[in-house]
Every structure is written in structure tokens, then in C-alpha cells.
Write a structure and sequence with these properties.
Layout: H1 2-39, H2 43-48, H3 54-64, H4 70-82, H5 96-131, H6 136-150, H7 153-167, H8 179-186, H9 195-202, H10 205-242, H11 245-252, H12 257-264, H13 266-295, H14 300-309, H15 313-341
Length: 347
């Protein structure tokens, strides 16, 4: 009983420490965003320079406080973020937090599909590479993993569009959904913004199919990026597990090799993957900017590219800072899962 209580308090201390680490992580990330954005000058001049007279420009700069000392701006920026204010866009005068509610679900949906693709592609290939270690199959799969990770997302997207829009026109290559389906989804009263969930709630099989068809190419383009990482991780960890003593003992008892790979060795290899999933969220969010732009998938990444083109650096700063907070919180959730799943974690 005492041992259980001690383990429980140790777990709480571990999670409490991990939670406290969120704050310096977010501070470092948002500080980097602030510094990089200020290197291009004040946002008003960047967005409105050449469109307004010098007097009008100076009035806007003064009203926004960009003529004050940089440290004053920095501490006001931190205070605003601490209160949940990530700024207001210069282009359409919209709070950045509202952009998360409007476009964040689309990016979340794309990241969800991409993770599914990464799991479907990366895990079986990693298991096969481990089972066929040091063979031509293993070498080919490792080469695929390197290419999948190293090839730019937008290039993969363009190749997919070329194949499936020109050579074999069987899949849509732009948008999240077709026009008719979008009209049908807009009539749903309690819509979540997650089109697949909304289509299921609508109960319309044509809309569900349309949503899935539009998701195939962008999710494959982005998912292959993470699939390469998963493939190498699964291969490395399963090779290590397959060389363990308990696997040798199971093999000596005549347990089939397929069962050893799919059950005995696969489960222990999952724990490092769970740890890496949190880091891959950041990779997926970064890749979403290029993927959403390539496929006109109107999420946060697409909007970020639009604001960059308009030189609306207030919006860019706010969106990037908001994404940094999301990544930090995601990593904390992954730490919780790892602590609960892996008994080897020391609290």
C-alpha cells in the first residue's frame, strides 16, 4: 500500500516537473519569434509601406506602439500572450486566436490524416526491414525512408498532382471538399469544422466519400515525411528487441518468426515511437504550411502563407507563437502517455 502511494506521488512530481517545463519552453519559442519578426523592422511599415503617406504611416506606428523601446514592446508582447492575446491581424483586423477557431480544425484534420498515413506506411515497412535485416529489401526500405524524409513536401505534392490530376485524373487536387459537399456541410447546425466528423453526422455517404477523396493527396504528401521517421525508428528498436534474451527463449520454444515480430517484439518497440510522436507534431505543423498551400487546403498553414505574402507580420508572429504553444502542450501530453505506458520511466 505504501509502495503504491509512493509511486503515485512520484508520478505526480514527475508530471508536475514536466508541466512546469512548458513555461520556459514557450518563453524561448515566443522570444525567438519576437526577435525574428523584429529583424524585418516594424510590422506596420512592412505591411503598409508604400501604400500610405509618411505621416499616416507614422500615426499607425505610434498608435500600435512600435516606436517605443524594443524591451518595452517585448514585455508587453509577453504580457499579452500570457493573457491569451496573440495579436490582431493588420490585413483584416481579426484576432489571431479567432484564426485558430476558424482554420485550426482544418490543420488538425490534415495532421490526423497524415499521422494515419505515417502509421500505415512506416510501421509495416519498419517491421519488414527489421525482419529482413541486412538484405536488399532492408536496404531498399532504408533508402525509401531517407528519400521520404528528405524530399520537400511541396515537391511530393506537385508530383502527386501531376500523376493524379494529369496522368490518371482520379482524385481531386485542391480544397478540402467539393462545392456541393461544402454547401451540404454548411447546413449542419452543430458543425465541428472537422469535415469527416461533420460528414458522418450528416449521414451522407457521397459527402463522406468526397471528404476522404480530397484528403488523400495532401495527407499522403505530408504523411510520407513522418513515415520515413517511423520506419527507421521501428526498424532500429525492433532489431534491438529481436536480439533480446526473452526473444531468443521464445524462438527456442518454436514460436513462429512472424508472431515474434508482430507481437513479442513490436509492442516494446512502440514506446520510443510514442515519445517521438510529440516531436513529429511540430514537423507536421511545419510541413502543413507547404502542403496546405500546394493543395489549397485552407487551414492555419494556408493562412500563414497568405499573411506572409501580404507582409502582415503581426499575424505571422501571432500564428507562429500560437503554434509554438500548441507544440509545447502536445509534448506535455506525450510525456503523460509515456509515463503511464512505460514502467521504465523514472519518476
Amino acid at each position: 500500500m505504501a509502495k503504491t502511494a509512493t509511486a503515485g506521488s512520484s508520478l505526480l512530481r514527475y508530471l508536475g516537473l514536466r508541466f512546469l517545463l512548458i513555461f520556459p519552453t514557450i518563453w524561448i519559442l515566443v522570444t525567438m519569434v519576437f526577435v525574428v519578426m523584429r529583424l524585418v523592422g516594424d510590422p506596420i511599415t512592412a505591411a503598409q509601406g508604400g501604400k500610405l503617406s509618411a505621416e499616416q504611416l507614422q500615426e499607425l506606428i505610434t498608435a500600435a506602439g512600435y516606436d517605443r523601446p524594443i524591451l518595452v514592446q517585448y514585455f508587453e508582447y509577453l504580457a499579452a500572450i500570457a493573457s491569451g492575446d496573440f495579436g490582431t491581424t493588420l490585413t483584416n483586423n481579426q484576432p489571431v486566436v479567432e484564426l485558430l477557431a476558424t482554420y485550426g480544425v482544418a490543420t488538425l484534420e490534415l495532421a490526423f490524416y497524415s499521422l494515419i498515413v505515417a502509421f500505415i506506411v512506416g510501421f509495416p515497412m519498419g517491421m519488414l526491414a527489421a525482419r529482413r535485416r541486412d538484405t536488399a529489401t532492408d536496404a531498399g526500405l532504408r533508402l525509401f525512408a531517407i528519400l521520404a524524409y528528405a524530399t520537400p513536401v511541396f515537391f511530393v505534392g506537385l508530383l502527386l498532382k501531376l500523376v493524379f490530376a494529369v496522368a490518371i485524373p482520379i482524385l481531386p487536387v485542391a480544397g478540402r471538399v467539393g462545392v456541393r459537399s461544402e454547401i451540404a456541410l454548411s447546413k449542419l447546425e452543430d458543425a465541428t469544422g472537422f469535415y469527416l466528423i461533420d460528414a458522418i453526422k450528416l449521414g451522407n455517404n457521397e459527402v463522406i466519400l468526397d471528404v476522404l477523396q480530397h484528403a488523400v493527396l495532401p495527407s499522403v504528401a505530408l504523411g510520407l515525411l513522418t513515415a520515413g521517421v517511423f520506419l527507421r525508428l521501428v526498424r532500429t528498436n525492433m532489431i534491438s528487441t529481436l536480439n533480446a534474451d526473452y526473444i531468443d527463449a521464445a524462438r527456442s520454444r518454436g514460436i513462429p518468426e512472424v508472431q515474434l515480430v508482430t507481437k513479442n517484439a513490436f509492442r516494446p518497440a512502440l514506446i520510443p515511437i510514442i515519445t517521438v510522436v510529440g516531436m513529429q507534431i511540430a514537423l507536421l505543423l511545419g510541413g502543413a504550411v507547404l502542403t496546405e498551400t500546394t493543395f489549397e487546403w485552407k487551414g492555419l498553414g494556408f493562412q500563414l502563407a497568405e499573411y506572409l505574402s501580404a507582409r502582415d507580420y503581426v499575424a505571422v508572429q501571432g500564428i507562429v507563437a500560437l503554434l509554438a504553444v500548441i507544440v509545447a502542450l502536445t509534448n506535455f501530453l506525450v510525456d503523460i502517455i509515456v509515463a503511464l505506458v512505460d514502467p521504465r520511466v523514472k519518476f
